[in-house]
Amino acid sequence: MSNFYTPIDVLVLGSGGREHALVRSILASASSGRVFASPGNGGTALDAANVSVDINDPAAVVKTALELQVDLVVIGPEQALVNGVADALRASDIAVFGPSAAAARLEGSKQYAKEFMDRHRLPTAEWAMFTDPQSAYKYLEAKSAPIVVKADGLAGGKGVSVALTMEEAYQAVRECFEGRFGEAGSRVVIEEFLTGPECSLLIFTDGHRMLPMEPAQDHKRVGENDTGPNTGGMGVYSPVPIVTGQEHQAMLDVMQRAVDGLSADGIDYRGILYGGFMLTAEGPKLLEFNARFGDPETQVLLPKLQSDLLEVLLAVAEGSIGDIQLEWSNDWLLSVVLASAGYPGEYETGKLITGVDLAESLPGITVYHAGTALGEDKKLYTAGGRVLNVTASATSLAEAQTKAYQAVSMIDFEGKQFRSDIGSKAILGRSAWS
Ligand code: AMP
Ligand code: GLY
User: Fold this and answer.
1) Cα gap 47→72, rounded to integer Å
2) Which of 111, 150, 160, 292 has the most ligand 1 atoms within 8 A of CB, as the residue to mutate?
3) For strand 188-192 and strand 127-130, is the pairing parallel, antiparallel, or unpaired?
4) Which of 167, 192, 202, 343 has the most crowded CB, counting CB atoms within 10 A?
């Protein structure tokens, strides 16, 4: 890698728990120099420095990176990737961790992702794509519920409707074409309904080789027992005990074939490829690809990584992982999201947060910030839907769960909501899903 004795200055784009975890791990790297986050949050303000810039504007990001004279830009969220921020940085000779806009279509267009999966024979749900409501309704007439309706483009995680009745399916199609998701809904993918536990497998890739991370499992629904509306993710753990060795191997094979497919398609991919799988009775099937680190998956994956993160990020950015091997601790990691009352709907912000330092003084506890802001009084205030990620590390999943909830009870803000069952199904075992 680059000269080990020259500190590497890094700009991390984003403001979630994922970005705070990236900042913490980069700061722990032997070669890290100045670290900035943009726009960042209360946690990155305390640990590094926040810089204000519109991260979805490629030219503005290039200008900021040049002004700050950083050696590497790490892109957190998908919109910046889809908007071509990585392309603009590369065109200005600035090293960047994150795929090009063309490559990020794997996340930015469901149709593109499904065509890619079919072209490279990657297992996924049967699907069809529509550009007008009449053809979509006609297709639905021949199908039965449950069935899944997806807006083609990025819709902030809200574009997927798992329709349990045909009425819901027709309504979901109608809403897409009536413009509920804007341009993102002008194409609609209708998909076979799959069942089974979900599991995420993220890999670092330079477009040729992959370095897999450990499997992780998110909890997407807002309510206990996986009820209520979908959210960005309410809690996560890693590794995933209910995944069999055979399933794990099958997911690794799918991801390697995906990397081979990118290379065969002539796509220069440098970043994370996130495979969202469902563990069906017929084996793991892909629900989606993301072109970035998961949030909150990153908050349990990076603390397990023993290798120097910055070295890996730079190697990927330079387009060559070389012979790097990743080392992982044997610990179990579990993270509980504390959210504002009302999330994922409307919520209030500006509530005083107390107890974070106390919680972090417990052994094995790290609190990653998401929607927090540092006030002029140097106190922490809520500033978003998902506020904090209370993360525990322990020698068993059950112990990690106990420790995380101990820490959760020490933190307070008005309207604090969280799920009290993160990890519970996994501790019960696979039968908890049937
Ligand atoms: P996606 O954004 O494609 O990951 O979809 C969001 C969520 O919708 C997933 O995490 C699943 O819980 C659910 N989902 C997506 N596709 C399917 C499918 N084909 N069958 C069942 N559930 C699905
Ligand atoms: N945790 C789900 C995601 O990052 O998309």
Assistant:
1) 18
2) 160
3) antiparallel
4) 202
Give the dihedral sign, CA 46/44/4/58: negative
Instruction: Kindly report, residue by residue over 280-294, the tens digit of the pLDDT.
Output: 999 999 999 999 999
How far does residue 231's CA lie from ligand 2's centre (Å)? 9
Is the model's pTM score more than 0.85? yes
Distance CA 78, CA 217 (A): 20
Between CA 151 and CA 175 the distance in angstroms is: 10
The answer to whether residues 26 and 310 touch, using CB atoms and an 8 Å cutoff, is yes
Q: For strand 72-75 and strand 8-14, is the pairing parallel, antiparallel, or unpaired?
A: parallel
Residue 2 has pLDDT above 60, yes or no: no
Residue list, ligand 2 pocket, CB within 6 Å: 218, 233, 290, 294-295, 297
From the CA of 294, how far away is ligand 1's center (Å)? 15
Amino acid at 423: G
Nearest ligand atom owner, CA of 230: 1
